[in-house]
Specification:
Order of helices and strands: HHEEEEHEEE
Number of strands: 7
Shape: flat
Radius of gyration: 26 Å
Strand order of the largest sheet: 1-2-7-6
Strand content: 25-35%
Helix content: 10-25%
Number of helices: 3
Length: 153
């Protein structure tokens, strides 16, 4: 699609011919300016979750490998359920900092929030086993609309 843009005096005009080396140089400049720009920031800080419908409830399964059970918090605030997991790395500790040659495992806080307005929040059950957090989220029971006769004044 053609885009009409105003000309800026300091803007570099690109040649009309294809130059693959110029494109490679631009890609290299963009990469070294912000090497993680090609990744979605949420992809790096969110954990993967599967939600399945079990009829009378939903099963939420999320992968949290390497976390201790004590580092996982489940908070319910109104109609929002927040799963928060925090990981601390050994390499962050002062006495271990100089001993590592390379550190690739990430540390920090990871969280996801879910709308639970259709869930019976009083009966949510949680289980953490083998790096997988499983939440059983029972559905709210649908109540039939109340039927009654109204008096005319």
């Amino acid at each position: 699609m053609f885009e009409l843009r105003p000309y800026r005096k300091n803007e570099v005009q690109r040649p009309a011919y294809y130059d693959p080396f110029r494109e490679m140089e631009e890609m290299e400049r963009r990469f070294f300016r912000d090497p993680f720009a090609m990744f979605d920031a949420n992809e790096l800080t969110m954990f993967k979750t599967d939600i399945s419908d079990r009829g009378d409830s939903y099963l939420l399964e999320t992968d949290l490998p390497g976390f201790d059970k004590k580092d996982i918090k489940l908070d319910l605030n109104g109609d929002t359920l927040t799963i928060r997991a925090e990981r601390h790395s050994e390499s962050e500790q002062k006495e271990h900092k100089d001993k590592y040659l390379r550190v690739e495992r990430s540390s920090g806080v990871y969280s996801r929030a879910f709308d639970v307005s259709l869930i019976d929040t009083a009966n949510i059950r949680a289980k953490y086993e083998d790096g997988v957090l499983k939440l059983t989220l029972p559905k709210k029971q649908k109540t039939a609309p109340e039927s009654r006769t109204l008096e005319i004044e």
